[in-house]
């Protein structure tokens, strides 16, 4: 068998980076003790709060968050994804939202800056304008062949609504799609699991989706429900709405069987679209 345990960590992050790092390490420690070899942290794991404070901290926080991931990977001998932390653009008014994948030896395997920004007006009266203080990335998300594990494709949160991004990852060989998020409770109750299962099914791929949960900035609610989903679309683990982790096996023989039985990737009409 070619399998390993993967963990999608669930956090309630705040505007206090040191508190966030402590909470994240607690969950990394627990997941590693359970045998997880691949651990994903959610979007905004290092900071979740007011935009003005994020911009103020961005320069130092980018270095702190990256160093934290390197330290955690080495300390617990795991491959770890930091699902999104702010990195200064250089204009003082915007940051990138960067995911970073780090190997067991502390080597940075890949970085990805979120492409799609959440600018929406929801029916519950809430509005979000990520583009007011974030800048979108400009390069396609990477696929990383992680030694001893599998080929991992990166994305972040709102990207999940753009299936062409995941087709690109699958075309580059991805076997597991990482989708760290801070999904709103209002949209999450109807869309989160459905979207993740769709990405898993249509790409016959594993999905690892670490998430934020609970209230932040005193008023906004995250959905929670970190998930691990198999290539058939079966939810293997769900972290619910408390902090913790969804932990489940990733079985590459199972993936190969499903891709053989349901060879939709081979049936694509790429000459047409």
Total helical elements? 5
Q: Please give the CATH class.
A: Alpha Beta
Report helical residue fraction: 25-40%
Tell me the radius of gyration.
17 Å
Distance between the termini: 36 Å
Structure description:
This protein is of the alpha/beta class and 273 residues long. It has one domain (3-261): Carbon-nitrogen hydrolase (Nitrilase/N-carbamoyl-D-aminoacid amidohydrolase). 29% of the residues lie in helices and 30% in strands. It contains 5 helices and 16 strands. Strands 1, 2, 3, 4, 5, 12, 13 and 16 form an 8-stranded mixed β-sheet that branches. Helix 1 runs parallel beside helix 2 (51-76). The longest helix has 26 residues, at 51-76. The radius of gyration is 17 Å and the shape is globular. The termini are far apart. The model has no long low-confidence stretch (mean pLDDT 97).
Outline the secondary-structure elements:
Elements lengths: L2 E9 L5 H17 L2 E5 L10 H26 L2 E10 L6 E8 L5 E6 L5 E3 L5 E3 L13 E3 L5 E4 L8 H9 L4 E3 L6 H18 L3 E4 L1 E6 L3 E4 L3 E3 L5 E4 L5 E8 H10 L12
Parallel strand pairs: 1-2, 1-12, 2-3, 9-10, 10-11
Antiparallel strand pairs: 1-16, 3-4, 4-5, 6-7, 8-9, 11-14, 12-13, 14-15
Helix pairs in contact: 1-2
What features would you highlight for this structure?
30% strand; 5 helices; 16 strands; 8-stranded mixed sheet; 273 residues; 6-stranded mixed sheet; alpha/beta; Nitrilase/N-carbamoyl-D-aminoacid amidohydrolase
Gist?
This protein is of the alpha/beta class.
């Amino acid at each position: 068998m070619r399998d390993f345990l993967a963990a999608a960590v669930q956090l309630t992050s705040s505007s206090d980076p040191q508190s966030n790092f402590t909470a994240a390490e607690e969950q990394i420690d627990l997941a590693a003790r359970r045998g997880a070899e691949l651990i994903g942290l959610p979007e905004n794991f290092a900071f979740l709060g007011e935009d003005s404070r994020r911009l103020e901290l961005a320069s130092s926080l980018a270095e702190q968050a990256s160093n934290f991931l390197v330290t955690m990977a080495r300390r617990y001998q795991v491959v770890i994804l930091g699902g999104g932390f702010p990195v200064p653009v250089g204009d003082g008014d915007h940051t990138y939202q960067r995911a970073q994948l780090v190997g067991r030896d502390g080597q940075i395997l890949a970085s990805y800056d979120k492409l799609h920004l959440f600018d929406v007006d929801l029916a519950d009266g809430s509005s979000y304008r990520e583009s007011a203080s974030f800048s979108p990335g400009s390069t396609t998300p990477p696929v990383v062949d992680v030694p001893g594990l599998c080929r991992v494709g990166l994305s972040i949160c709102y990207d999940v609504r753009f299936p062409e991004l995941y087709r690109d990852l699958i075309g580059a060989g991805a076997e597991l799609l990482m989708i760290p998020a801070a999904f709103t409770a209002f949209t999450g109750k109807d869309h989160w699991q459905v979207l993740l299962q769709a990405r898993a099914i249509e790409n016959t791929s594993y999905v690892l989706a670490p998430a934020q949960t609970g209230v932040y900035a005193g008023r906004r609610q995250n959905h929670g429900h970190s998930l691990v989903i198999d290539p058939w679309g079966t939810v293997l683990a769900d972290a619910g709405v408390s902090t913790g982790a969804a932990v489940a096996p990733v079985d590459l023989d199972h993936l190969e069987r499903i891709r053989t039985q349901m060879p939709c990737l081979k049936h694509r009409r790429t000459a047409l679209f």
